[in-house]
Amino acid sequence: MAQWNGSDLEKVGAAEELELASERPNGTLRDAVTMWVVRSGDRLYVRSVKGTDGPWWRGTQSRSRGRIEAGGVERDVAFHPADPGEYAGVDAAYREKYGRYTSIVEHVLTDAARASTLRLEPR
After folding, report:
1. Contacts 24+ apart (CB under 8 A), 25-34
2. Least CB-packed of 26, 56, 86, 106 within 10 Å?
3. Of the ranges 43-47, 102-106, 117-121, which one carries the lowest mean pLDDT score?
4. What average pLDDT does range 80-91 have in this prediction?
5. DSSP E strand boundaries for the chain
6. What are φ and ψ of residue 63, in 5° steps?
7. Residues of the chain with pLDDT > 90: what percent?
8. Looking at residue 2, what is its pLDDT?
9. Is-contact 98 39, C-beta < 8 A?
10. How far apart are CA 22 and CA 1, in angstroms?
């Protein structure tokens, strides 16, 4: 598993939003989607409000690779399903970072959203 360098981890983790483009089977990138990103420990995570039925999440499954841009960092990444043991830390990170959006943040804390949790690892 590749590790984030400290500067990129800080910048992406602090960014309000992240642009994520997943790779198609032929290696080209899909259009980027804007989403929330959180840091838990030394890892970065994203979730789909619609769970594994979310269109962008389904797009990550063809190659488990893509590109992100956030906080002035652009990086090729691999998408790895988070282990359920990571969910509590990711939940806490979402509450802490986006808790001011009370009516919205609860949507990324559902069981369906948790099941879509992806860990972003640099390539």
Report:
1. 25/62, 25/63, 27/63, 29/66, 29/67, 30/56, 30/59, 30/66, 32/67, 32/69
2. 26
3. 102-106
4. 97
5. 18-22, 33-35, 38-40, 43-46, 65-70, 73-81, 118-122
6. -130, -10
7. 95
8. 77
9. no
10. 19
